[in-house]
Model the fold of this input.
Amino acid sequence: MQLQVNYLDWENPVTRSRACMEVAAKHGVPVVVMEPARGGRLAELPEQVAAPLLACRPDLSMASWAYRFCYNLPNVLTVLSGMSTIEQTRQNVAEFRASAPFSPEEERALAEAREMLEKLAAVPCTNCRYCVKDCPQGVAIPEIMSLLNLELMTGNRAFAKGLYSWQAVKPASECIACGACESMCPQSIDIVHQLEVAAEHFE
Ligand code: SF4
Ligand code: SF4
Done:
């Protein structure tokens, strides 16, 4: 089975990396992990997020943390990392050969970095999906909220926009501002406004 897994999405209520891995493990299905550095975004972390990782292991690249997280998960057959040059291929092979489980200090550094990345997310959507049921337009609200957070976390609009083109099956611009979703949202999210932002950023 091929899955998109990475440390940032591990507990993400939409992408649910952990849940997917647990289902695969339960059924004894080996996993091929793709995009462990989230299309390169976990290889280029904001400075404040990278700080605890660099303080812990100044010799490791940011991508290396992403690869090791996946490589050392149980039930992983292989990890597909993006490579476009022979130098990157050599570097990845060397890193995978040297890959070892995280030490307690490394676990703490990664948890700190992940916490900071998550704090950059501003829309408190939990993917409960209550809002979806009564939407007359069938707008992909939770997926769009998740992509707004992704843009905030990575600072990379183009990357989120690329995912938006296929994850937001019914895009934000389909919203007719009826307000039905907002009355259902336990997080009191200003969904109509957030959809306007999404349409502006991603369409
Ligand atoms: S406000 Fe927009 S997204 Fe919300 S239910 Fe109405 S059409 Fe759907
Ligand atoms: S109801 Fe609110 S919290 Fe739940 S999925 Fe919709 S936007 Fe997210």
About this structure: Strands lie at 2-4, 31-34, 76-80. The chain has a mean pLDDT of 88. The longest helix spans residues 104-119.
